[in-house]
Amino acid sequence: MRRFLFLGLAVLAFCDAGTAFASDQSKTQKADPEIAASRRSSPDGQENPGRPFVFPKGVSMSNTKQKSVAAWEAFCDQLKQAGAVLVQDATPADELVQAEGLRKLVRMIRMGFEASLEYGNTDFPEVYQLVTPTTVGEGENADAHYHQAMLDGSKTYRITGRRGEAPFIEFTVYAGKIGLDSGSAVVGAMTEAELKVDPDGGYELMLSPEPQPGNWIRTTPEATVLFIRQYTHDWRKTKDATFHIERVGAKGGRPPLTVEEVGRAMSRTSVYVARSVNIWKAIVDQRRAAPPNRFFVFEEEQKQKGEEEAPEMPVGHRFSSGYFRLAEDEALVVTFKPAEVPYWGLAITNYWFEPVTYTQHSSHYNNETARYEADGSVRVVIAAKDPGVPNWIDTLGHLEGSMILRWSRTRLPVPDLQAQVVKVSTLATAP
Length: 431
Hints:
This protein has about 425 residues and is α+β, with helices and mostly antiparallel strands. It has a domain at about 290-425: Jelly Rolls, CATH 2.60.120. Helix content is about 20%, strand content about 25%. The chain contains six helices and 18 strands. It has helices at about 5-10, 35-40, 65-80, 95-120, 260-290, 300-305, and strands at about 130, 145-150, 155-160, 170-175, 185-190, 200-210, 215-220, 225-230, 245, 295, 315-325, 330-335, 345-350, 365, 380-385, 390-395, 400-410, 420-425. The strands form four sheets. It has a five-stranded antiparallel sheet, with no helix packed on it. Helix 3 runs parallel beside helix 5 (about 260-290) and helix 4 runs antiparallel to helix 5.
């Protein structure tokens, strides 16, 4: 499980403006073998949860009805394996955790099927909104908008659109998608620091194996997905970017569906559900097993273990994380003194690594929405009940979950976060 703990945090990071792969985009990093192995494992230790789809014996290849029913039955049988996460020893048995676990499995079906079929044609790709208030599950940041397009790294693609107003934007090409594939590694990336924008706010970005003029990210045959992140401090005041993608040289339109194509996508979806839910659950379980109500800095833990940076971790983004566990009448008071940086954000997730809410601003704070103390420090209060003080993170009924500090676009060290459990009743009267 080495490096695995912060895999989810690392993949969701965005690159430092001055160091984001600008020097060498041609080297594809190889995924950590231990991480890849863990992704191939199902809850019972068997590899590749959700077997590759094949029509069973006796199904006539000329009988479309038989093929359709066989594809559906295989899909349902494969999905059953994913439900094992609900009864693992480490999984809490309380009503809220179990209900959200069921919901996550269903959400993962939608996310997997969109990537495998709905938006999965790499000759006629689409940039689509990956994360919505009802499609979350990978530790997403409510200050970020996430988009995705599926690629064939041996082909050439053109992305055009409007830059929008988000101060931070990142285009990252990966070889493999977490959960959908057995490994994932960064191929190349570009941030707002390198992206050239026209005077009217338009831009063009090329993805290809061969050099291109202007904005260009080198791809390799292993590249499978373009991931786009935009970060801002308040989306209510920020205009979103727009994205259109086309494969250069593609002719005609997307061909009609076949039963075989949908069957393969259903099989990939069932694999994605089982893999993905176990990947993120393993991250949470390892942090949950550590002492609660305190923060750990990923960079420091790596140094203590003598490890190099994990291949999924973009350059220039740091994290501190922990796991809170409280009683109904308790609160966790988190204090720290941040330096002046382009962005920091503090948020919580539920047991399944989903943001407790992706829309309500009381669920997270950043360096522009938080209220600072006179000495420049910040005090954030995590509690299920309103303590009547500034910077309250509402757990929305959750008494346990993950905490994540994102520390971005800076080389300054992550601040020391102190956390203390107190009674909620003592906070309103505290100075």
